[in-house]
Amino acid sequence: MGDMTNSDFYTKNQRNDSNHAGGFGCSLMELRSLMELRGTEAVVKIQEDYAGVEGLCQRLKTSPTEGLAGDAIDLDKRKEVFGQNLIPPKKPKTFLQLVWEALQDVTLIILEIAAMISLGLSFYQPPGEGSESCGTANAGAEDEGEAEAGWIEGAAILLSVVCVVLVTAFNDWSKEKQFRGLQSRIEQEQKFQVVRGGQVIQLPVSDIVVGDIAQIKYGDLLPADGVLIQGNDLKIDESSLTGESDHVRKSADKDPMLLSGTHVMEGSGRMVVMAVGVNSQTGIIFTLLGAGGEEEEKKEKKDCSHPSSHPIATIATDGAASANAPGNTSLVNGKMQDGNMENNQTKVKKQDGAAAMEMQPLKSAEGGETDEKEKKKANVSKKEKSVLQGKLTKLAVQIGKAGLVMSAITVIILVLYFAIDNFVLQKRPWLPECTPVYIQYFVKFFIIGVTVLVVAVPEGLPLAVTISLAYSVKKMMKDNNLVRHLDACETMGNATAICSDKTGTLTTNRMTAVECFVADVHYKEIPDPSSIPAKTLETLVNAISLNSAYTTKILPADKDGGLPKQVGNKTECGLLGLVLDLKRDYQTVRNQIPEEKLYKVYTFNSVRKSMSTVIKLPDGNFRMYSKGASEIILKKCSYILNEVGEPRAFRPRDRDEMVKKVIEPMACSGLRTICVAYRDFSGDPEPNWDDENNILTELTAICVVGIEDPVRPE
């Protein structure tokens, strides 16, 4: 599939559309055109044509709650009819293309020219002994052997150029191959939560099919297009598609359309997958960009790749970063995104029908203004140079200029010396029969000048640098660092500070509760449940079980004696682990109050730095459970549960004392501190839940938990 071009893949998917979706109630093109709609227009269309999201699920033969059955034949049929969740990669550069790219270096071009001149002139025979009457030149004539070996200089320079080019091209080719292998492995490891047969499972992104029910939550990157079935305070960042930085609020009754390549910034929910791979919005843009790039390449008949022909939707620096975990090999990518191109292409989406969308890049490729074409042509030749390459090129040009000046001076001195010696001092006349002899002398002087120039050009410099960088790449490979381009090594050598992600890179990303402050006692390890007042324990278990995403779970270990599997938000997994350590089961609490019965959810976001869930109690009153960064939640607490489980006043000076005696020692031990609290509300009158400032205040603190993320052993 890797060899198939985007347009082949695209037309193949379109052909599948002819047999009205192989028994499904919607065809591929129907779903594609449905995903073009936004907001109320989409809601009306779904309601009128499909009788709501449930009707849409029925047509796709899926259940909004149970998901697909997971039958292999059904899944294969869906992949055949609606396509796979894969975007075929761009063809890699051939070895010869990489050789041609390596030859574009200025230093190498200077060397090539010098070698050609040197080789050409080495086969020219200098004049024999002319007649005495035509005079002589003292130009340091070479002996016979040296004259015969004159070609060696030029051949040696050419050999060094060939070495540099082959080393660079082979390194780039082999690293590109390794990089693609690693990239495909990473893509296989990318997983997403999907409901199949009533069970929530982690599925590789490429295995998601149309009709799957996907569970989405804060921090997810959506792998496919879909329609929201149910959501809690869902906000999406669609800037990757529209360029708009404002978060878009999504709800099943106002704007249910969720697009691939967008990020969930707040909330959670469930969606039914409607389009995957090249038929999703991201896939369509890739297809259009691919078609546009191919058209331009055909028109210009240029073999070099244009930087903006195939923008990739990621920006990565051409440096190296190491995860240093066993088997973890880091990526060093070198793709730069051309944002303008992508934004132009997204405007296309507003037109109706796929035909118009396919035509658009062809128009833009043919009807572009001449100025833009000129700019593009200029961009083709300008390849980003590393610091060292830039300095080397500058040095080579400077040496070249100095050599040129020196060789010119040498030729002028030799010509003047010959002329003065023969025509002024010895007063010889210029005889017509001597003219060919004089010209031969002048050519010999020119050869001496070229020799000075060739000697001045440093043919060993690029070779030494290339070999040392290739050696560095090998050394870095042993440290689990895959460097894609040679010059990235040297770029990293210039780094003065490296900013590394901590969670999961330097640590194992397995959050575990190790300390807690509960019932006025600071426990350095998880206490025995009997030492905590029953009332406090029950409130704590309910607060953690209900006020965390229901998609977050702790599953049994895969192997005997292994650690339990943490699924979902790792911090919440640490808190659920605390519930299990206290010999309680969070699932029983969740079964009593399923997700759809939660009255109101204030999801976690970077502004709130907390998450709160409101439930309706049997007596008609409300209780809100909150959790979040301890410094944020404690500021909103007016009470705290004491040693017998009763609320007592919690004043600012108590808070300062708690920060000093509990939170700071935990933080000094490298623990993340999370505070769990609650608040009761009267059901009559019902509070204004949108007035967050008055809701998220006067809380009662239950406990402060210290969560550890162990550092990787290496």
UniProtKB/TrEMBL annotation:
Its EC number is 7.2.2.10. The keyword Repeat does not apply. One of its GO terms (molecular function) is ATP binding. Residues 370-382 have a biased composition (Basic and acidic residues). Residues 297-382 are annotated as: Disordered. Keywords: ATP-binding, Calcium, Calcium transport, Ion transport, Magnesium, Membrane, Metal-binding, Nucleotide-binding, Translocase, Transmembrane, Transmembrane helix, Transport. GO terms for cellular component: endomembrane system; postsynaptic density membrane. It holds the Pfam family Cation_ATPase_N. It comes from the Eukaryota. The chain crosses the membrane at residues 404-425, 445-471. Residues 49-123 form the Cation-transporting P-type ATPase N-terminal domain. It is an enzyme of class 7 (translocase). InterPro entries: ATPase_P-typ_cation-transptr_N, ATPase_P-typ_cyto_dom_N, ATPase_P-typ_P_site, ATPase_P-typ_TM_dom_sf, ATPase_P-typ_transduc_dom_A_sf, ATPase_P-type_domA, P_typ_ATPase. It is found in: Endomembrane system. It is a multi-pass membrane protein. Gene3D superfamilies: Calcium-transporting ATPase, cytoplasmic domain N, Calcium-transporting ATPase, cytoplasmic transduction domain A, Calcium-transporting ATPase, transmembrane domain. One of its GO terms (biological process) is regulation of cytosolic calcium ion concentration. NCBIfam families: ATPase_P-type (TIGR01494). This is P-type Ca(2+) transporter.
